Amino acid sequence: MRRYLEEFIKRDLDKKMVLVSGPRQVGKTTLSRQLFGSYAYLNFDSGPDREMIRRLEWDRKAKLVIFDELHKMKNWKSWLKGVYDTEGIPPAILVTGSARLDLYRRGGDSMAGRFFSYRLHPLSVREIRDYLHEKPEDVVHQLLRLGGFPEPYLGKDEEAARRWRRTHIDTIIRQDILDLEKIRDLKSVEILIDLLRMRVGTPISMNSLADDLQVSPHTVGHWLRILEQLCVIFPVRPYHRNIARSLLKAPKYYFYDVGDVKDDLGARLENLVATALLRELHLIEDTTGKKTALHYLRDKEKHEVDFLAVTDGRPVLMAEVKSGDDSFERSLFHFKRYFPTVRAVQAVLGLKRRKSSEGVEMTAVHEFLDELEF
After folding, report:
1. 45: domain CATH number?
2. Are the C-beta atoms of 68 and 42 separated by less than 8 Å?
3. Which helix (H) or strand (E) holds 318?
4. Domain span at 112
5. Total number of domains in the chain
6. Are residues 90 and 232 in the same domain?
7. Which of 123, 159, 211, 222 is most buried, judged by most C-beta within 10 A?
8. Which pLDDT score, from 0 to 100, does residue 334 have?
9. What Å distances lie between residue 158 and 146, 162, 259, CA to CA?
10. How far apart (Å, rounded) are the C-alpha atoms in residues 173 and 285?
11. 74: buried, middle or exposed (CB in 10 Å: 19+, 13-18, 0-12)?
């Protein structure tokens, strides 16, 4: 299956190295191997490949060299910088990875100016419609049932998807977390994930989680940051023009894998929209260099809207998600007065006919996600 980032990555490989990060098993390796017919694939986890990397013995006639899990090599950034500065391109150089690679992407340092980076997300409604030619309405129901990671979605088997998900989370907890840090209490991290599954779409209290886990709020915050780095969860913070104030208020947490959410239609639907919005915002950042953010809206009178998308500090879209209610959410009209030029949408599962009132649109979730753009 083709992926939405392929043409962007091909364009940039002619100019610089490309780094592709994203959740475990989201399809980074598959995407990389589909870019060109001729490539050299080297995985640092493989003994023979590791020796070939260290000896600089890969095929220079290949159009593309793919380094997978290279972040596990000591001083890999300096090594890669040396290869690029000495040999340049061609062949094009693509590096794939997850947590450490994305951390480095944000850090920059010694390789500044030598690479472009992309974040690959799970499958979206538009991507599945474009490449698998499935109807958007059917895609939404399948994503809610199976999640958006390629293997469970393409398998179309709910039981197999549950088994895949269990192995996926276990691998992250037992291997990937230890790759980042030596954490002894992995069982508590597992319980934390279960607690977050039950609280998708609600502001999270660090103190409440700390009480449940019998650890300090600082420890909970540290574990949450690790799960963010591993692309298990992502935060959505309340919006405020004073960014420092927004960081002090309770965030909501969503899962990259919709299938990780508890078996609650409303929570899964809200999580599905959150992942779609984040994907589009990351795509804007990675292809244009604009800074983006995803927030929610809430005031002292408890008016609340699920999402506010922001690009370069400017709100561009506010969205409320409903699993069946086709009456307008009054909070949208409340915040529309503060953001009169921002598009306001209420996305409703299974809505038959679009409607609008006082500048607020109501549309079906599958149509909203299929047409999503900023």
Report:
1. 3.40.50.300
2. yes
3. strand 314-322
4. 6-119
5. 2
6. no
7. 123
8. 93
9. 6, 6, 10
10. 29
11. exposed
